[in-house]
Amino acid sequence: MTSVVLILCFMPIVIIFIVMKLATWMSLTTFETKYIREEAKKPHGPYYPDAYADVDEEEEERWNSMNN
Question: What is the DSSP track for 1-68?
């Protein structure tokens, strides 16, 4: 009988904890959904065909100078 009373005493705390977790989860998912929709509408670009060409050339030159 005492264990039932103890469980019933802690039940409101558990319920409040679960409700807070659900509220936090729902608000963050709503915020993230809005953010994704806004980001999708922003203009993207310009895209470069080979954005790291200069870095690759430097590495290649460094590699060639080390091997020679």
Answer: -HHHHHHHHHHHHHHHHHHHHHHHHHHHHHHHHHHHHHHHHS---PPPTTTTHHHHHHHHHHHHHHH-
How many folded domains does the chain comprise? 1
67: how many CB neighbours lie within 10 A of its CB? 6
Write out the residue range of the structural domain in which residue 19 sits: 2-67
pLDDT tens for each residue of the chain, 68 residues long: 889 999 999 999 999 999 999 999 999 999 999 999 999 998 887 887 877 777 767 777 777 777 66
Query: CA-to-CA distance for 21 and 18, rounded, in angstroms?
Result: 5
Tokens of 48: 């470069």
Does the bond joining 46 to the residue before it have cis omega, within 30 degrees of 0?
yes
